[in-house]
Every structure is written in structure tokens, then in C-alpha cells.
Write a structure and sequence with these properties.
heterotrimer, A: mainly alpha, Cytochrome Bc1 Complex, Chain D, domain 2, 3 domains, 3-stranded antiparallel sheet, two-stranded antiparallel ribbon, 7 strands, 43% helix, C: alpha+beta, Aldehyde Oxidoreductase, domain 4, 7-stranded mixed sheet, 25 strands, 30% helix
């Protein structure tokens, strides 16, 4: 992916470079505020609305470093083109957005242009945020401007040349950024329309659930056909061995698990944790919209749990019996969300074993003191060969679809990737 | 027939390949160190070292342990002749009931083996999978730090936190 | 002042009647108080010296205690006492703990009583034995006793002649009643008391020695597992035992009413058979649990007996500044790291049970009723389990082992519960509610206090078989008896309900709820945890209303110099004055004397509150404790440190989850507790030794103060008062707003 992008860039570079600076210069600096607006400039309700919206947008996820101050940025965001460090969006006057007027904030959110007129990289999902209503933007501004200001030293991005050239985004925007405001679909009710607006805009679900082209832009014709996020699959929306009802999807998005579909893993875990803080009505709207969509890819229903398809894989069977059965076998003592019926697992039904491998390697954990789904990681317990035997057993017994190929080497590769990130 | 190498000794055992290692250690080999705590990989009382990695023995099928180097707390030292880490636990009186202790020591030993002088935050992060209900976490950290400081003292040229 | 006068307190501290679980102790306490020449500690219960201490012909010393090692370091402290008074090295003392065939009956090891009861008895017995040995040597050597010295297991004369304890003791020297007074080894000659003697049980525990009942292996031992009903209400409708009985190694399947169990040759075989049996069982269950969303409304509406704890005037004087608050605490569990375990052996006539029960004698009585055997045919032997922190599944697992042993005579049957069984069936610490009104005047004095605490039982320990859970499920069940409130002065739900502060108008009531929506019993500290949380939180609220500082306000309402000393020490060592309040950080203080008659504790903490999530982190804690004469200061520190961490975990994270029929907290992910990353940066404990003073129980002294200190520090950090335990991030975030 990265190599192809570099070739494309080299071809296009001379062409673009000639006009690049000129076009980029069209974005003016927006004057800075003398002081950040005081808390009293916003109503309590507005700030609270903003907090609930920010939870949907997941601002905190990308703009807070591990062990860093809330919203103070410097979290490393892995992209196919290198690592980008998120910015400080606290109202700190120096390194944060304390001197940003609401107009500057709105332009950054909707057009990807910072207050000083600089391009932002689309790792910041402005192509989605372009759809935000004025009212929602206003609330988000109120929320962010009332956070605790923290001055920081911005870490430099680690992007390959020429991908670190911000002016290149001019052309990226010309090619791929076609802002559209969400239009109401009169065939559906208000809740559905609210859901559609949040999914396409603030929720930026397509970031992980829509495939990207070699320029890193979401493919417009394949919305929600399945993408990639932080090394995990973003499954097609909706796709699962059993259809999602609105109620099931609502529970999943609010709590990070659902009895009939299993637990969120990978980056989705934090997304769901954020949605737990959002306005329940908005989450219900998101669930209503997504569950109304036709499945993009119908995943096969799993087998009825009989051992036949797994015959011959005695190692896999033994590993499952010794390591997994206490939670995942029929009659196991655990209740969902611990140890769901694996026939219901999207990861086990998926054509690509990526998420299944990552989950078995790393497990599922909750942040400090929170109750919720748990699974131990087995990276240190099993060799690549053992992991492959186990997964191929699970796939055959519970997955339904064709056998996964080349499991051992996939495990090896993903195990190494885990070690790095 | 499964062959297990535990604390340097090889055992050939007629056991079900799915039997979790914990029950092989306690049942077939008569060991006491690894304890049953939860059987879900949530508490670490059963932790043993397999090929240098701390592993929940309650969820490690015997077949998966075959041919690998297994070290239990019994393999580190004895009550009469404790290992440096075991001695550090005694010196800090880093226990109350002691049920979690063997799992704590094995997990900490796997850390010490790769990083002889871990910092407090490295110790906390590494030990996270293991639970103590009596509330002796700070004493356990002190016990591991005691070894780390002794190592740093003996290696004055080495960086403060030795890397892997 | 408080309901307990100083003189009465002193008598009780010395007399130390054990109160947990026995209503008959109501009268025992009264007798103790009336008795004129009381024997010290549990010598009052068992006055013969050789019940506590025996010396063999070879000079070997064996000490007997009816108390049990629970991880609190009891064995080490008792050995220290005996070895000190007998002037021998600790290694020369062999200690036998709770065993109905060998040791005195000291009831339960509970309520922070062990040092007062057993420690006092053993120290006196050893000191009196030493005097008897010296006196006999004086007779044999024809020297005055004053010219002789006990040392290293011998009595030595100035001229060099010496006689070993073994030579002196004969058959009957120690078979005498104890005297009320003893002469202890003089302070300047002490080698062990007051020293940080290392725990005698640790070398085995760090190196895989057989240290626990879980590690006990008897010849021909087999393994039992039980299938417990999925809900309190569940009754077995049908079960197909065929599949399980065909599994390899299965020796026996027990079906007795709603009680299902298996016995197999090996442990994994038993576990597999248990899972198979469980999968083939069908149960009828009813939604008989309270709606978790309205738990406290349900508890408030349940019928209760009102116990007047301190029946004074409860009205608020006019003109004073009156405050009112309600505090609540969720159901919380003991959560031993090792699930309960026991081994039973029935030889066709007599039953032996190895158990980590806190009370081998009461358990024996309960098993006699359960199994239909005479008392004399049952022996209960204590072996350590994982720390229990009160009445957990230990006794129930012992009953399981006893019943399975009866079902398969002649082979020892070891039963260990699974994690989910311990989590869902152990008796929890009862949910509690407190309603308090108080008034302060312009002179910063508390002038009135009206307090009501409400809860279910805090002790449903066996005494009868009806408190053993397996008895409920048999075809001929024994119902659980109606629980009783524990008597004052120690109390149950009303433990520590009376503030020690000088308050002219004071009224304290306890609404005891006989019903138990969730199974409940003694959890470390009982009601003291909640009462101290409520009292010490409310005192801070009153101090704030009065415009007074937390430390000064407390000191102004206390006369007891020992109480003031722990407060002043904790505040000074913490750096209360000059505390630097970083953004989101705050300091909080709390004080209590456990049960109003045991150890004094002053505690200052710093917390950090995350504004965005509402998450609270305990940053550091500094405690000062006065436990009377400190036998092993590091042991006391370990108990206080551990209590601080454990109760911080209760306070910040823990509540039992349930739906209308089942307990949902089945493991550590559905009942999270503190892990390494959440442990505070530092905990400091300062022991204020009181040589010559009676031992004051410390094991539970930190539980309540840490809860209040955390809440007070949150109020200091972010200006909101948290009154519901656990203090969840959601709750804090809702209070501080966006």
C-alpha cells in the first residue's frame, strides 16, 4: 500500500508542485482571539450538549496521549504513510486552540484548514466533519473551549517525504474532498435521518468501515463495505452472522458488547466506551440507521457446534478444550459478555482471520476498574503453529465459511505487528 | 504420552492433551506453587514461566506446554534456600495470606530475566494481570525494586533502566 | 460522649468476649463485665495452662491457639509472645492452630480479636509457666527463685547449674489453673516483643511449600465438585446424570434435592464431570431479587427492627446550622483469591474435616447437625486458605466436603469451589443506608446529631446447620434461621455507629432488616466500614458548614489523648499544613477507633480526580495507628496498608451486580477490584506503640477511615460530596458536570 502510494506521488509531484503553493495560499489566517472565551460565554446546556457530541466524535480518543492530559494531543496515530501526532485541542493559548475564534474552529472542522491557513492531514476526519450542522459545531466549540487548558510541545509527525508536505493536501482535497451537507431523506423518520447524519459526519464511521484507495481516501462507491482501523478490520456495516436489530446494536454501541454478537475489540472498544457517554437518543439513532441498511456482505451462519468439520485437527481440538472451553463451550459457566457462543462471532465468521488472530493474541481488557467483557490474550501461551491449529479448529467448528489459509504466517506477521505498535 | 520439562526435569506423562498445565503440576507432579484462582486468566495465581514468558497455567493445555521450558516457583528456590527474588519477597514481607504470592513471583521473575532493573512503572504495567486481594501491591513492587536496585548498584555503568 | 464508658471499654478489651454470630454472647458480655477477678484474654474461657502450652520431656515447646492464621500474621505474633515469655528462640516454639481435637475453643477468628483473646492468653500462660518452671527449679536447686533465670529453654543458677524445661516440667506442672496476674519479661530484657520478626509462614509460601488447605494431599484422596444452582431461588427440575457418570474417573454422582455433586479420581476429571452435569441440569427459578435499579428504595421499604444504639434526644436545636445527608453502600464481596476448599474424610464412624473456616468449633456443631453425627465424632482442623476477610464460602465448602465424604466413606474427598461459585454464592457485605442530621453552632461545635443506619444482617455464620448453604438445597432442607442483630457494644450493622466526638444531643438508631435480598454475612469491619464512612464524611460536612478545618474540628470534639495523638501524627506526617493542591488533587482526613474500643487510626490521603472521566485515583495515604502494645510493628503496618488498599478498592470500584433472579458478578471482570495500576503511589503507616497497654485489634481498623478520607479528599479536590459507595467515575462526573 505504502509503496504504491509513493510511486503515485512521484509521478504526480512535478505536475503539482508548479501550482501547489499558489493554490495553497488562498486560505487566509483568521485573527486570533485576545483571550479564550470564558466559561460564562456558554450556557451549561450547550457545554453538556457539546460533551455528548464529542463522545460520538471520539475527540478524546485521538487527542489524548496515553497517560497524557485530556485533549492535549500528542497521541501517535498510525497511518499507512507514517505516524501523525494529534494536536492539542485544549483552550491553551499557545499550543492549543485557546485563541481560535468559532469561525476558525468551524473552518478547521469542515475544511481541514487550521487557523493560520495551514492544511491539516485527513487523518483528522474533516471530510466527515464537513457535514456538521452549525448547531452541533457551536456546541462542540463550547465544550472544547471550556476544557482545562494545558500547554504542550507538539511532537513532529513522522511521515515519509513527500507525504509530509502539507500543500499536497490541496490536490488531495481537489480529488477526494467533496463536502456535502447531509440532506434529509423524506422516506425515513427523524431518528433515522439523525442517525445517517451522525454516522456520515461526526461519528466518521467510514474512517474504519469504508475501504480506502491508494491515496488514503475513502472509496466513495463502496461506503461501509469494510475498512481498516489501527490494524484491525472495520467490518462491513452491518455484517454479522446474525442480523442486527436496532435494540441489539444500541446495546452494543452503548456497552461494547451484545449477547447475540459478542464484544467490541480493538479500536471499536474505545469507540463504544465513548458512545456510552453520548446522548442515548443519538446512539439509538445511529443504531436505527445502521441496522436498516442492507447487509453489504452476508456472513455465513456458523455450524451448530458439532465437532465433525474439525475432525482431524486433534491439536486444535485439545487446545480449544483446555484453553477456551471453560468460557466458550456449551454449558460453560460464563454468561455473556464473557465467552459468547462463537457461532455468533463476527470475527470467526469473517473471511479474513485478522481480527480473530488479534483477539486471541491480545485478548480483551477493560480500562481501570470497569466491569465488562474480558478475554485473556494467548500470545505468550501458544506458538504460531498452535495458534493456527486452534484458529482453524474454531473456524471449522463455529465459523461456517471456508477454511482460513496460511494461518501460521498470518499469526506470525500480526504477532510482530503487535510488538511494534 | 506427553513430555513436559519442568524446572529442568523431564516428565513423561499419560495425560489428556487438553488438561490444563495447572492440574498437571498440582496433580501429577505434586507441586503447590501454582494455584487455582479463577480458571479464566483473570487473576494470575496460576502463573508459571514458559519459554521465558509468564503464562496462566490454568489455560495452558498440557499439549501446548510439551517440549517447552517450564519454570514454576519451586524451580527458583526452596524455603531453606530462596532465590534472590524469593528472598526479596521475604525481606519486604511482601505478602499477607500468600495465596497469590507464587504467581506474583513467577511473573516478576520473567520481568527480571529480561530487564534486571525495571522501574516502578514498568513493574506495575508488567504485573497488571495478577491480583492481590490482601492489598500488598506496594510491598510486591518494593520487593522487585529491591532486586532492581541491587542490580543497578552492582552494575554502576549500566543505564538506569536496562533494556531488553 | 459515646455509649461506652472508658472503664467499660477497658474491661471489654481485656475480657474480649467474642461476639460474632452468637446471640448468647449478649449475656456473656454482661457476665464478663460483672466478674470481679477476671482471667486475662481467653484464659477466662479455658483457664488450664496446659490447654495453651505444653512442654515435653525433651524440652520441646508446643503452643495451642484456638485462633486461625488468616494471612494476618497471627502465628508469628503468637510465637513471638510465647518465645519472649519463655525466654527461648522463636524456632523452638511449635504452634498448633485451631483444631477441635487439640486446641482451646476460642470461637471465631474474627473482629480483630485474636491478639486480645488468644495473644493475651498465651502471653500470660507462657509467663506463668516460666514462673512455675523457675519455682520448681528453685525447689530442686534449693536456691531462692530470684537467683535463677530462665534462658534458652533452661533455668540457670548464678553458680552455673542449670535444669532444662523438660526436666522440670514433669507431668503436671502446667496442669493448673491460670492466675489473674502475670509477671512479664521486663521491657529491658525483651528480645522479640515490639520487633519486626519476619513472618514464619512466608518461606514456604514464596517457594511452593504446602501452605494451604488447597495444598493438602492425603493418601487415596479423590476430588469432589459441586454444581450450584444458578440462582438463590433455583430448584432442580430434572437432571440427566448418565453422561456425567460415564466419564472417565467418575466415582460417584450425588443428587440430593437440588444438590448436585460429583466425585472423581482426579481434579480435572471432577471438573469435567461437573460441567457435564451442569449442562444437563434444568432448574426452576423465580425473579425474587430486588430490582437493582431500585435497590435502596427496596431496602428502605423492607420491615426492620429498630435497635436503639444511643437513645438520646434527636431533635435539632433552633438557631443552629442544621445539615442533613444520606449515604449508601452497595453489596460488596469478600472476593478471596483462592476459592473455598475443604477436605472431608469419613471412616464409617467419625468425620474429619480440614477447613479454612474461621471457627472450627462452631463449624463442628453445624456439621454435627447437618450430617447427623454426635459432636464427639467430628473433628475440624484449620488449614490456611486464601485471605477471607470475613465469612465467605469456607464453611459451605467444608459442608460440601463433609457431605461428599459421607457419600464415599474411607477416602478423603477434596472439594474446591470454582471462581464463579465463590463469586455468586459467598455471603456479601450487606448493602446499607444511613440518614443523618446534625447541627453546628456559631462556636464551631457540633450541638446535635441524629443518625439512623439500616441494613440486613452482618453475621449469619454457622452455629446451626441452617447457615450452611448446602443444607438449603438438600431433599430435606434445613432452612436458614432468622438472622439476629449482633449485640452491642461491638454491634453488627451498628458497629461504630456512635461517633466518639463529644456531642451534647446524640441519638443513634439501627434499623435491622431481618430479610436478606442477597445473602449477607460478616465482611471485614461489618457495619463499621459504612458507619465510619458516613460519620467521618458528615463531620467534614459539618466542619465546612462551621468554617472550621478538618483537623482542628475533630480535635476540638475529642478528649482522649490517644485519639488526638493518631490524628496529630497522621496530619503531620502527611504534611497536612502546607499541602500543595495540584489541579484536580485534594486532601482528605478521617479518624476512628475501631468498634470504639479497639485500635485508633488517623488517616490522611491525597486523591486525584480526572475532570473528563470522573475517575478517582488514590495518590497516597498516611496513617497513624495506636494498637496498644505493638507485638510486631511491621505486621501492624502490613494490616493497615492492606486494609487501606482493599477498602479503597471497595470504595472506588466494587458493587455486586445482579438482575431479578441471578447474581451477575461471576468473576473478576464482572466484579473488578483494584489492580497494580490503580494502587496508590505510596502508603505510610506510623505505629504509635503503647508498651504495657492491652493489645487493641487492628485487622479492620483502616476499612472505614479510608472510605471517608477518599470522599473528603474528592470534596476538597473538586468541591462535590460523594455519598454513595462505590464512588464510580459516572457518579463523580455527574456531580462535577462538564
Amino acid at each position: 500500500m505504502r509503496a504504491r502510494w509513493i510511486i503515485a506521488a512521484i509521478v504526480l509531484l512535478p505536475l503539482l508542485a508548479a501550482t501547489g503553493y499558489g493554490i495553497a495560499a488562498q486560505y487566509p489566517l483568521i485573527d486570533k482571539l485576545e483571550n479564550a472565551p470564558p466559561r460564562s460565554a456558554f450556557s451549561r446546556k450547550l457545554i453538556a450538549d457539546g460533551a455528548r457530541l464529542a463522545a460520538i466524535g471520539g475527540c478524546h480518543l485521538c487527542h489524548t496521549a496515553p497517560d497524557g492530559a485530556d485533549f492535549a494531543g500528542n497521541r501517535p496515530i498510525p497511518t499507512p504513510f507514517g505516524t501523525i501526532y494529534s494536536t492539542n485541542i485544549t483552550p491553551a493559548p499557545g499550543s492549543g486552540i485557546g485563541q481560535w475564534s468559532e469561525a476558525a474552529f468551524a473552518r478547521a472542522m469542515r475544511a481541514g484548514i487550521s487557523r493560520t491557513g495551514r492544511h491539516q492531514f485527513p487523518a483528522f476526519p474533516y471530510p466527515h466533519f464537513a457535514r456538521l450542522s452549525d448547531a452541533d459545531l457551536h456546541a462542540l466549540y463550547a465544550f472544547l473551549m471550556t476544557r482545562r487548558p494545558v500547554e504542550t510541545t507538539q511532537l513532529p509527525n513522522r511521515l515519509l517525504f513527500p507525504l509530509n508536505q502539507r500543500w499536497l493536501m490541496t490536490f488531495w482535497n481537489i480529488l477526494f474532498f467533496h463536502p456535502a451537507s447531509s440532506r434529509r431523506d423524506p422516506r425515513h423518520d427523524a431518528e433515522w435521518n439523525r442517525g445517517a447524519y451522525l454516522v456520515a459526519g461526526l461519528g466518521h464511521c467510514g474512517d474504519c468501515h469504508t475501504p480506502r484507495n491508494l491515496f488514503g481516501a475513502e472509496e466513495s462507491g463502496r461506503k461501509f463495505a469494510g475498512g481498516r482501523g489501527e490494524g484491525w478490520t472495520g467490518p462491513a456495516l452491518p455484517a454479522a452472522p446474525t442480523p442486527w436489530s436496532t435494540a441489539q446494536l444500541f446495546h452494543y454501541l452503548r456497552h461494547g458488547w451484545d449477547q447475540t454478537h459478542g464484544a467490541a475489540a480493538g479500536p471499536m472498544q474505545a469507540v463504544a466506551a465513548g458512545l456510552g457517554q453520548a446522548d442515548p437518543a443519538d446512539v439509538r439513532a445511529i443504531a436505527a440507521y445502521l441496522s436498516s441498511r442492507e447487509p453489504r456482505t452476508a456472513l455465513p451462519r456458523g455450524h451448530s457446534g458439532n465437532a465433525e468439520p474439525a475432525a482431524g485437527n486433534r491439536l486444535g481440538a485439545a487446545l480449544f478444550a483446555g484453553a477456551c472451553a471453560r468460557c466458550h463451550a456449551g454449558g460453560a459457566p460464563m454468561l455473556p459478555p464473557h465467552g459468547i457462543d462463537l457461532r455468533l462471532s463476527t470475527a470467526i465468521a469473517a473471511a479474513d482471520p485478522r481480527d480473530a488472530i488479534l483477539t486471541v493474541l491480545g485478548g480483551i481488557r477493560q480500562p481501570d476498574g470497569r466491569a465488562g467483557p474480558y478475554m485473556p490474550g494467548f500470545a505468550d501461551s501458544f506458538s504460531d503453529r498452535q495458534m493456527a491449529a486452534l484458529l482453524s479448529f474454531v473456524r471449522a467448528r463455529y465459523g461456517g465459511g471456508p477454511a482460513w489459509r496460511g494461518l501460521a504466517s498470518r499469526v506470525r506477521a500480526l504477532r510482530q505487528g503487535r510488538g511494534q505498535s | 504420552m506427553i513430555t513436559l520439562t519442568v524446572n529442568g526435569r523431564t516428565h513423561r506423562l499419560e495425560i489428556e492433551p487438553a488438561t490444563p498445565l495447572l492440574y498437571v503440576l498440582r496433580g501429577e507432579l505434586g507441586q503447590n506453587g501454582a494455584k487455582f484462582g479463577c480458571g479464566f486468566g483473570e487473576c494470575g495465581a496460576c502463573t508459571v514461566i514458559v519459554d521465558g514468558e509468564p503464562v496462566f497455567s490454568c489455560l495452558l493445555p498440557a499439549i501446548a506446554a510439551a517440549g517447552r521450558k517450564i519454570t514454576t516457583v519451586e524451580g527458583l528456590g526452596t524455603p531453606a534456600k530462596p532465590s534472590p527474588l524469593q528472598a526479596a519477597f521475604i525481606a519486604e514481607q511482601a505478602a499477607q495470606c500468600g495465596y497469590c504470592t507464587a504467581g506474583m513471583i513467577t511473573r516478576a521473575q520473567a520481568l527480571i530475566d529480561r530487564n534486571p532493573s525495571p522501574s516502578e512503572s514498568e513493574i506495575r504495567a508488567w504485573m497488571e494481570p495478577n491480583l492481590c486481594r490482601c492489598g500488598t501491591y506496594l510491598r510486591i513492587i518494593r520487593a522487585v525494586r529491591r532486586l532492581a536496585e541491587a542490580w543497578a548498584k552492582a552494575h554502576p555503568g549500566a543505564p538506569e533502566e536496562a533494556s531488553r | 460522649m459515646s455509649a461506652v464508658s472508658p472503664s467499660r471499654r477497658a474491661v471489654l478489651a481485656g475480657g474480649g468476649a467474642l461476639v460474632i454470630g452468637f446471640s448468647l454472647h449478649r449475656s456473656a458480655v454482661a457476665q464478663d463485665a460483672a466478674a470481679p477477678a477476671e482471667l486475662p484474654g481467653d484464659l477466662a474461657k479455658e483457664p488450664l495452662l496446659d490447654a495453651w502450652l505444653r512442654i515435653g520431656g525433651g524440652g520441646d515447646i508446643t503452643v495451642f491457639t484456638g485462633k486461625a492464621e488468616l494471612g494476618q500474621g497471627l502465628k508469628t505474633a503468637l510465637v513471638q509472645l510465647a518465645a519472649e515469655e519463655l525466654v527461648v528462640a522463636p524456632e523452638m516454639v511449635r504452634l498448633i492452630t485451631a483444631d477441635t481435637a487439640l486446641t482451646p475453643n476460642e470461637g471465631y477468628t474474627a473482629g480483630s480479636h485474636s491478639m486480645q483473646d488468644s495473644g493475651t492468653a498465651i502471653r500470660n500462660a507462657a509467663a506463668q509457666a516460666r514462673r512455675l518452671l523457675v519455682a520448681r527449679a528453685a525447689g530442686l536447686l534449693q536456691l531462692p527463685a530470684a537467683k535463677l533465670q530462665a534462658k534458652g529453654g533452661t533455668v540457670v543458677a548464678a553458680d552455673g547449674r542449670r535444669l532444662g524445661y523438660g526436666e522440670l516440667v514433669g507431668n503436671d506442672l502446667l496442669h493448673v489453673k491460670a492466675a489473674p496476674q502475670s509477671t512479664f519479661i521486663a521491657a529491658k530484657r525483651r528480645r522479640l516483643i515490639g520487633e519486626d520478626v519476619p513472618r514464619i509462614d512466608l518461606p514456604a509460601k514464596v517457594a511452593g511449600g504446602a501452605a494451604f488447605v488447597q495444598d493438602l494431599r492425603l493418601p487415596n484422596m479423590v476430588h469432589g465438585r459441586v454444581v450450584l444452582p444458578p440462582a438463590y431461588s433455583a430448584r432442580l427440575r430434572s437432571v440427566d446424570t448418565a453422561a456425567a457418570s460415564r466419564l472417565p474417573g467418575v466415582l460417584k454422582i450425588v443428587e440430593d434435592g437440588s444438590r448436585l455433586a460429583v466425585i472423581a479420581e482426579t481434579e480435572p476429571q471432577a471438573i469435567r464431570a461437573m460441567a457435564t452435569l451442569a449442562a444437563s441440569a434444568n432448574w426452576d427459578e423465580a425473579p425474587d431479587l430486588p430490582d437493582p435499579a431500585n435497590l435502596f428504595e427496596t431496602l428502605a421499604a423492607l420491615p426492620a427492627e429498630t435497635v436503639p444504639v444511643h437513645d438520646g434526644p434527636g431533635d435539632m436545636p433552633s438557631g443552629a446550622n442544621v445539615l442533613e445527608a444520606r449515604y449508601r453502600r452497595a453489596y460488596q464481596m469478600h472476593g478471596a483469591i483462592g476459592p473455598s476448599c475443604a477436605i472431608g474424610l469419613f471412616d464409617g464412624d467419625a468425620l474429619t474435616v480440614w477447613t479454612h473456616s474461621q471457627g472450627v468449633y462452631p463449624l463442628r456443631a453445624a456439621l454435627a447437625q447437618l450430617c447427623g453425627l454426635p459432636l464427639a465424632k467430628i473433628r475440624c482442623i484449620h488449614r490456611e486458605g486464601a485471605g477471607c476477610y470475613g465469612h465467605n464460602g469456607a464453611d459451605d465448602a467444608a459442608a460440601d466436603a463433609a457431605l461428599l465424604a459421607m457419600a464415599l466413606p474411607a477416602r478423603p474427598v477434596r472439594v474446591q469451589w470454582m471462581r464463579e461459585q465463590e463469586h455468586t454464592w459467598e455471603p456479601y457485605g450487606s448493602a446499607m443506608l444511613v440518614h443523618v442530621r446534625g447541627a453546628v453552632d456559631a462556636l464551631q461545635h457540633i450541638v446535635a446529631w441524629d443518625y439512623t443506619v439500616r441494613s440486613s444482617a452482618h453475621a449469619t455464620r454457622p452455629g446451626g446447620a441452617g447457615n450452611l448453604m448446602p443444607a438449603w438445597h438438600r431433599a430435606r432442607p434445613i432452612a436458614q434461621p432468622a438472622p439476629q442483630p449482633l449485640p452491642l457494644p461491638e454491634g453488627g450493622g451498628d458497629r461504630n455507629a456512635v461517633p466518639l466526638y463529644a456531642i451534647p444531643r446524640l441519638r443513634v438508631m439501627y434499623d435491622f432488616i431481618p430479610a436478606m435480598p442477597l445473602r449477607a454475612s460478616a465482611l471485614r469491619g461489618l457495619g463499621a466500614y459504612m458507619n465510619i464512612f458516613a460519620i467521618e464524611s458528615f463531620v467534614d460536612e459539618l466542619a465546612k458548614a462551621a468554617g472550621a478545618g478538618a483537623i482542628d474540628f475533630r480535635l476540638a470534639h475529642l478528649a482522649d489523648p490517644r485519639a488526638k495523638a493518631v490524628i496529630n501524627t497522621a496530619a503531620a506526617r502527611f504534611g497536612w499544613e502546607g499541602f500543595f493542591r495540584a489541579e484536580g488533587h485534594g486532601r482528605g482526613f478521617a479518624f476512628a477507633r475501631y468498634k470504639n474500643l479497639a485500635a485508633y487510626l488517623g488517616l490522611a490521603v491525597e486523591v486525584a480526580v480526572d475532570h473528563e472521566s470522573g475517575g478517582v485515583r488514590l495518590v497516597r495515604a498516611t496513617a497513624a495507628v495506636d494498637a496498644g502494645e505493638a507485638i510486631n510493628p511491621d505486621g501492624i503496618k502490613n494490616q493497615i496498608e492492606g486494609g487501606i488498599l482493599q477498602a479503597a478498592s471497595w470504595t472506588l470500584y466494587e458493587s455486586v451486580r445482579f438482575d431479578r433472579s441471578r447474581i451477575l458478578s461471576r468473576d473478576w471482570s464482572s466484579y473488578p477490584i483494584m489492580r497494580f495500576s490503580q494502587a496508590p503511589d505510596a502508603v505510610e503507616v506510623h505505629v504509635l506503640d503503647q508498651p504495657g497497654q492491652p493489645f487493641l485489634g487492628t485487622g479492620e481498623a483502616a476499612q472505614g477511615p479510608i472510605a471517608a478520607a477518599i470522599a473528603n479528599a474528592i470534596a476538597d479536590a473538586v468541591g462535590v460530596r460523594m455519598r454513595d459507595i462505590p464512588i464510580t467515575p459516572e457518579q463523580v462526573k455527574a456531580a462535577i458536570g462538564v
